[in-house]
Amino acid sequence: MAALVSEDPQSPDALHQQAINLFTGDKVEADMAGAVKIWEGLVKDFNHTESQILLGMAYFHGEGCEKDVDKAVETLRIAGKSGERGAQAAFFLGMAFLEGDKVEKDIGRGHRWLRQAAQFKHAEAHYQLGASMISSGEPEQLSRGCDWIGSAAELGHEKAKQFLKSANKSLPTAKKDFKESKTINEEDQTNNGDGNNDDDDDDWAIEPTKTGPRVTNKKK
């Protein structure tokens, strides 16, 4: 994605960048609420996809505004249908439904959103789709899951490459190792505090950057 720059300081992309600076406190005093107001205006007046993604995340986490998960999901849903520019929103929604993060867990819905992101060569979406299918324990899902892992590897995903190396030696062993690793990660999450997913323990987040929204895993 090209850098969001413009000679006109009042253009949508320039205003979006100003909001990012306010949100992150980059070279200006941080003002998350001010950033949210700018993004709301850009979404209302220009249907600006990048602003819509970050606005949805602000609603989701309650940063610069009151937390409103329903409003966040609807905002991200619209952004996620915006083609390649909305792939990050589609990926985030996919992971939220897959993991039951602040929304009711719905694996089918999670897979649909991950596929939406995956069609735009989103490597992590390919990998997470494959990981979910393989760890489901359903034999018919194993082959499909490996296909998604394979396509993630082709897109340069390092964990996918490592899985395939292990699978080439022994697919049952690779599957067992993968499921055990996933179980350990889940136990780590449930053993943190009272076992609930508190706001500070969210795995996935979308960070505003100078080149647009970027999904990151806070635990990596």
Descriptive account of the structure:
The protein has 220 residues and is mainly alpha-helical. The protein is 63% helix and 5% strand. It is built from 10 helices and 2 strands; from the N terminus they run H-H-H-H-H-H-H-H-H-H-E-E. The chain has helices at 12-24, 32-46, 49-61, 69-80, 87-99, 107-118, 123-134, 139-154, 158-169, 171-190, and strands at residues 204-209, 212-217. It has a two-stranded antiparallel sheet. Strand 1 and strand 2 form a beta hairpin. Helix 3 runs antiparallel to helix 4 (69-80). The longest helix is centred in the last third of the chain and has 20 residues, at 171-190. The model is unreliable at 183-202 (pLDDT under 50).
Brief summary of the model shown:
This protein has 220 residues and is mostly helical.
Question: What topology emerges from the helices and strands here?
Answer:
Blueprint: H1 12-24, H2 32-46, H3 49-61, H4 69-80, H5 87-99, H6 107-118, H7 123-134, H8 139-154, H9 158-169, H10 171-190, E1 204-209, E2 212-217
Helix pairs in contact: 1-2, 2-3, 3-4, 4-5, 5-6, 5-7, 6-7, 7-8, 8-9, 9-10
Which runs of at least 5 residues are low in confidence (pLDDT < 50)? 183-202
Mean pLDDT: 83
Continuous helix count: 10
Order of helices and strands: HHHHHHHHHHEE
Q: Whole-number radius of gyration?
A: 19 Å
- Shape summary: elongated
Query: Helix proportion of residues, in percent?
Result: 55-70%
N-to-C span: 23 Å
Which structural class best describes the helix and strand composition?
A: mainly alpha
Largest sheet descriptor: 2 strands, antiparallel
Beta fraction of the residues?
A: 5-15%
